[in-house]
From TrEMBL:
Protein family according to the UniProt entry: Belongs to the universal stress protein A family.
CDD domains, sorted: USP-like
Protein name: Nucleotide-binding universal stress protein, UspA family
Domain UspA: 7-147
InterPro entries, per the entry: Rossmann-like_a/b/a_fold, Universal_stress_UspA, UspA
Gene3D superfamilies: HUPs
Lineage of origin: Bacteria, Pseudomonadati, Bacteroidota, Flavobacteriia, Flavobacteriales
Pfam families: Usp
């Protein structure tokens, strides 16, 4: 079976939630025989005058780089002491966060970006930007959001909603690969409103057939609702799921800046890891957003 996860980048900012994300990344890497990149980004402090951008605080930047290098090396050594055969490397970038991540994704052929998530996004953070949300929406790779309080690192029950048709076959194949690596069970959830009921039902039945043909244990259920994110989160609690596999597709994402879109709803209402699949076909390799005006840099240690 194709290995969907060969290289994992974990965004490290030396907080508890990023340490937990690193633990999750290690556990996934061990099961999938993948390598891990421990990644941290430092952005220069700048001012803008008549001559353009001017870097300030060069000594501070150099000091932060040395602190970051020391902290990453310590983390790498700690992981290596427990898992000596695990392939590990560290990467430090000096750029805007998303551009630095995407540069590394391209250079290292990253399959999955893992980052910690604190969950709730209140009104203020909607304006200032959330690190995990920014990475989710802008990274040129599939993304796994790991809630800060998540302490289960095996995926015994894998919830796979069928709600959109794009890249569904890839999502099913990925889910089967994860289930086999974890000796887990897929919980297939068809979820639709009245508008696209027939298309989603057909796709749901095709997904069931595909899973059965590949001899993967699964159970299945179909729900009718317009509140898809809420119902998926509710079902994940009732089903005692360990991870949710989602297509990176949100039919309501640009409806309104102030509306709670699918992504924000499911992040806010779910306390298990969320795997957002981005197929190679849909990723725009030309993204170079400098994120002007929003400081989303991972803070330096110390």
């Amino acid at each position: 079976m194709q290995n969907f996860i060969s290289t994992i980048l974990v965004a490290v900012d030396f907080t508890e939630k990023s340490r937990n994300a690193a633990v999750m990344a290690v556990n996934i890497a061990l099961r999938h025989k993948a390598r891990i990149i421990l990644f941290h980004n430092i952005t220069n402090n700048t001012i803008i005058d008549r001559t353009g951008k001017q870097v300030i605080g060069a000594e501070t930047i150099d000091e932060n780089y040395k602190k970051t290098e020391f902290a990453l090396n310590e983390l790498e050594a700690s992981i290596k002491s427990q898992y000596p055969d695990l392939k590990l490397q560290t990467v430090i970038k000096n750029d805007s966060l998303v551009h630095a991540i995407n540069e590394t994704v391209h250079e290292e052929t990253v399959d999955l970006v893992v980052c910690g998530s604190s969950g709730q996004q209140n009104f203020t953070r909607l304006f200032l930007g959330s690190l995990s949300y920014e990475i989710l929406t802008e990274a040129n790779s599939s993304v796994l959001l790991v809630p800060e309080k998540c302490r289960k690192y095996a995926f015994d029950k894998i919830l796979v909603p069928v709600r959109v048709l794009e890249d569904l076959a890839d999502k099913i194949d990925l889910s089967i690969a994860i289930a086999k690596k974890n000796k887990g069970v897929i919980s297939l959830l068809g979820i639709s409103n009245e508008d696209d009921l027939l298309k989603i039902k057909d796709a749901y039945q095709a997904a069931r057939t595909s899973i059965a043909i590949k001899s993967q244990d699964y159970d299945s259920q179909f729900l009718m609702t317009r509140n898809k994110a809420t119902q998926i989160s509710k079902f994940s609690h009732e089903d005692d799921a360990d991870i949710i596999i989602l297509n990176y597709k949100d039919e309501d994402s640009w409806k309104s800046f102030f509306l709670e879109n699918f992504f924000k709803q499911i992040i806010n209402n779910t306390d298990i890891p969320l795997f957002f699949l981005k197929s190679k076909r849909m990723i725009n390799k030309e993204k170079t957003d400098d994120n002007m005006g929003i400081d989303i840099t991972l803070p330096s240690p110390g």
